[in-house]
């Protein structure tokens, strides 16, 4: 009859073992290759050397991680808020959606390489251009996810609510918004992986501090080991943010643990 | 007096005439079925009643008042259960009452005493996905009934169930209906179901749908859970003959 126990996917440590093994062996091969071939660390530093540099330069790296994290979170919060508010406006006003959607699509075709220097030129070396660039990059996936999510609402549930006398806004709150949540989290996970990269690129183009500046300076002084140290931190940042959205998703979409509903 | 009166109603969707002058009525405490070939416009009648469609001509009155002034007349149970997968069973059951403005606490107090009769006691904290097909259908029915509207509209409520569960649910439903006598309008294409559950049956033609037969079921209740009587059997054969030969259906 019913399923008394939730069908949770297996989350044991055992499931993570293949991933850990493949990552560790990739670094091992890299390390062994560098040592055996005697290649110059100016060309390709070994992972152990990158790690050493991370420890040696930990203060500088940490001081430059803070501005990057700051820009990432501020930009992401901005784009999350705007995407959410705008998605509701678009859902209630289909005409506005038809008018504005092409603009959003075009905004996604702008090459970041060209736009970033202009944004820095217009808004200076402070936080603003970084926040704007992070927002520009992360906004669209979330907006599309929300708009598509609203449209995915089961028409039978909407018809049922209307037969109960529900207004458009009650239908939105009770059916369309919850229906959009799985889509929203899919968009959120895509966006968050772009966010840190966008912030670092914005810094690279013009900033006083940040991981982008570390990378720029390290590159200019022929220090690939320091470049890679900054890269490791940037990846770690993205992974942490990704993990946070995954946890949030598990909390909000708890009902999905019990099957897909039909 | 008729609880629901549909007089000479016509509806066209685009260029297609869906309903071509339908008249029917349902009295208080009566169980009436609409039987017809698929695509005949059975569900269109429900869309009119729930306000999802406007009629082109004719009149519908509920409790003596025109439909436009009386949108609170019907509780609707859609074809599939339409339970919200993200809400617990209890929150699905109180949905109609809450939408009408009843505080959640009061709505729950209304629902709780009904849980045992609907076989849902102990499952109110589950999610719909954890329920069997029959339980989901009972939950959808309870969500309909608890709104305490004058007329219940059931759109093929057992159509999506497997044959065994459907038979069990029909028997269970007959028992519940006999106890409560909800004024009910049922849409179905299952002749046996219509004969087993109804006081009266309207048969619709193909589009544009007209009422081509109206029959009263004389068989005393309970009808299910025992061998089918001769008169019920004859009525089933009669209705099947109408559906096969007079609806304009060429196979």
Structure characterization notes:
The complex is a heterodimer of chains A (262) and B (251). Chain A has a single domain (58-253), classed as Orthogonal Bundle (MetI-like fold), CATH 1.10.3720. With 262 residues, chain A is mostly helical. Chain A has helices spanning 17-37, 47-56, 58-92, 94-109, 112-123, 127-151, 155-163, 168-205, 211-220, 224-252. In chain A, helix 3 (58-92) crosses helix 9 (211-220), helix 5 packs across helix 8 and helix 6 runs antiparallel to helix 8. Chain B is of the alpha/beta class. Chain B has 2 domains: 2-73 and 151-245, Rossmann fold (3-Layer(aba) Sandwich), CATH 3.40.50; 83-148, no CATH class. Chain B is 32% helix and 25% strand. The N and C termini of chain B lie far apart (40 Å). The model of chain B has no long low-confidence stretch (mean pLDDT 88). The A-B interface holds A 1-4, 6, 154, 156-157, 159-166, 170, 174-175, 178-179, 181, 253, 255, 258-262 and B 50-52, 71-72, 74-76, 78-80, 82-87, 95-96, 99-100, 123, 126-132, 135, 147, 153.
Jot down its keywords:
heterodimer, A: 262 residues, mainly alpha, MetI-like fold, 10 helices, globular, disordered N terminus, B: 251 residues, alpha/beta, Rossmann fold, 2 domains, six-stranded mixed β-sheet, four-stranded antiparallel β-sheet, 8 helices, 10 strands
The oligomeric status of these chains comes to heterodimer
Annotation, overall tally of beta strands of chain B: 10
* Name of the CATH superfamily of the largest domain in chain B: P-loop containing nucleotide triphosphate hydrolases
Task: Give the strand tally of chain A.
Answer: 0
Distance between the termini of chain A: 14 Å
CATH class of the largest domain in chain B: Alpha Beta
The CATH C-level name of chain A is Mainly Alpha
Tell me what the CATH architecture of the largest domain in chain B is: 3-Layer(aba) Sandwich
Q: Report the order of strands and helices of chain B.
A: EEEHEEEHHHHEHEHEEH
Topology-level CATH name of chain A: MetI-like fold
How many structural domains of chain B?
2
Distance between the termini of chain B: 40 Å
Strand order across the largest sheet of chain B:
6-7-8-3-9-10
CA radius of gyration of chain B is 18 Å
Structural class of chain B, please? alpha/beta
Count of helices of chain A? Answer: 10
Write the CATH homologous superfamily of chain A.
MetI-like
